[in-house]
Amino acid sequence: MKNFTTSPMVKKIAWILLIVWWLNRGLMWLFNFDLVALIFGYGFFARLVYTLVGLATVYTLLYPASKIHTPLRK
Is the pLDDT reported for residue 66 higher than 60? Predict the structure, then answer.
């Protein structure tokens, strides 16, 4: 079974969520415009997105991309 913490797909999803979060935060800081709230409203789904972003942040901090060691030669 593949280790969940070193899965490249999970790392990509986490980074995509972080990029989307930073874009949303930039819109909020610059223009006071919340894109997540516009798309999902202020209900359950917006909180779910923010929770997933928080989990992606913790995951990225615990398992940074520099921990992935791939051999250059076989």
Answer: no
